[in-house]
């Protein structure tokens, strides 16, 4: 899943990376940049973000 996310992220226009990609009920809005940071650092939040993006068929 990480590889899929990184491929999509790499192809995003720079100005789109600051847009909200996901809203988590307990954390609020997550932008592409925040998602990248969390996923790249292998945090628990990053794992949750990957899970939710896959459920929504974004990745």
Give an overview in words:
The chain is α+β, with helices and mostly antiparallel strands. It has one domain (1-8, 18-56). 51% of the residues lie in helices and 15% in strands. It has three helices and two strands; from the N terminus they run H-E-E-H-H. The chain has helices spanning 2-10, 32-40, 44-55, and strands at residues 20-24, 28-31. It has a two-stranded antiparallel sheet. The protein starts with a helix and ends with a helix.
CA-atom Rg in angstroms: 10 Å
Largest sheet: 2 strands, antiparallel
The rounded distance between the terminal residues' Cα atoms is 7 Å
How do the SSEs run, as a string of H and E? HEEHH
Question: What key attributes describe this structure?
Answer:
59 residues; two-stranded antiparallel sheet; globular; 2 strands; 51% helix; 3 helices; alpha+beta
Gist of the model:
The protein is α+β, with helices and mostly antiparallel strands. 51% of the residues lie in helices and 15% in strands.
